[in-house]
Design a protein that fits this description.
The chain has 284 residues and is of the alpha/beta class. The protein is built from ten helices and seven strands. Helix content is 38%, strand content 17%. It has a seven-stranded mixed sheet with strand order 3-2-1-4-5-7-6. The longest helix is centred in the first third of the chain and has 20 residues. It binds S-adenosylmethionine.
């Protein structure tokens, strides 16, 4: 096979899941790992390694990927401790949290993603045992009727739902994100939603680097709202806790020295400031 064949390039949006798994595999190898994902290396596979090392800047900013995973772990653990009885992971990709986190056996965990990546994951993890009640759903989240049906069904069988969408919203337009937010807010038992977010300045940086090849593969970076997490308030979701990835990486001495001058973060909207973070939103 050559460097331009299917194992070295992004073939579509679901291949971005292999890219993220590559960084989880790298972190797992460190003696000071902030989390360990023993499945990541197998899930990323050779193709994940090739993607990270072929995309422009694709193997850089390890600190940001690690901070994102760490923050989602923290927010999810807290929501579960506070009584969430169902985790709805939208665009779960190759995430292995149901296998690697310490979870109540009674917890329901529903993963949603496109059919190809769901079946790939099933092949790799099919014989492993998750720590909770895990289900996988193949669904295109742009299918409005399909997702509304799923959300209504989930709303009917859980009391406290925490939604997670890690690495998804950036691939949607602002209108698509707003529509998804409204559909999620329609469920009275949907209590919180954990998202990651980029500022407009960060979005532009990403569009100029890895975003070029991703865009050609149909996975363009699109969403970085000027309002930041306040974008979600009119759609029924109040920002409750917003944590910057650079600040988080700096707490663990993982932030690159040349970026430390960007701290402390500015207050309010981030505009041109290159910011990424993880936000906990509560249903209003
Ligand atoms: C960057 S990956 C993130 C995967 C995972 N959340 C993680 O952090 O490892 C983006 C994921 O979004 C999924 N995705 C993108 N558009 C989607 C859609 N319309 N419906 C369902 N999943 C989608 C892709 O298949 C891919 O698994």
């Amino acid at each position: 096979m050559t460097m331009t064949d299917s194992t070295s390039t992004v073939r579509g949006i679901s291949d971005t899941a292999r890219w993220v798994a590559y960084f989880r595999a790298l972190e797992t190898q460190r003696s000071d790992a902030l989390f360990r994902d023993p499945y990541a290396e197998r899930l990323a596979g050779e193709h994940g390694y090739q993607i990270a090392n072929t995309l422009r800047d694709g193997n850089k900013h390890e600190w940001a990927w690690v901070a994102r995973t760490y923050l989602f772990d923290q927010f999810l653990s807290r929501a579960i401790q506070q009584g969430a009885d169902l985790v709805l992971n939208l665009a779960a990709g190759l995430d292995a949290r149901p296998y690697r986190m310490n979870l109540p056996a009674t917890l329901q965990w529903v993963e949603v993603d496109l059919a190809d990546i769901v079946s790939y994951k099933e092949k790799i993890l099919g014989n492993e045992k998750p720590g909770c009640r895990l289900e996988r759903v193949s669904l295109d989240l742009s299918d409005l009727a399909g997702r509304r049906k799923l959300f209504a069904e989930i709303n009917g069988r859980a009391m406290k739902v925490v939604v997670a969408s890690e690495g998804l919203l950036i691939y949607f337009s602002a209108e698509e994100v707003a529509s998804l937010a409204r559909d999620l807010a329609a469920g009275e038992h949907f209590q919180s939603w954990i998202i990651d977010l980029a500022s407009p300045g960060q979005l532009r940086l990403m569009q100029r680097t890895s975003g070029k090849q991703l865009s050609e593969a149909g996975a363009a970076f699109k969403f970085g709202p000027p309002e930041g997490a306040n974008f979600f308030a009119p759609q029924g979701w109040e920002p409750k806790d917003v944590q910057g990835m650079l600040k988080t990486a700096a707490q663990f001495k993982r932030a690159p020295a040349e970026l430390l001058s960007l701290l402390p973060e500015p207050k309010g909207n981030f505009g041109n400031y290159p910011w990424t973070g993880v936000c906990l939103l509560n249903r209003r």
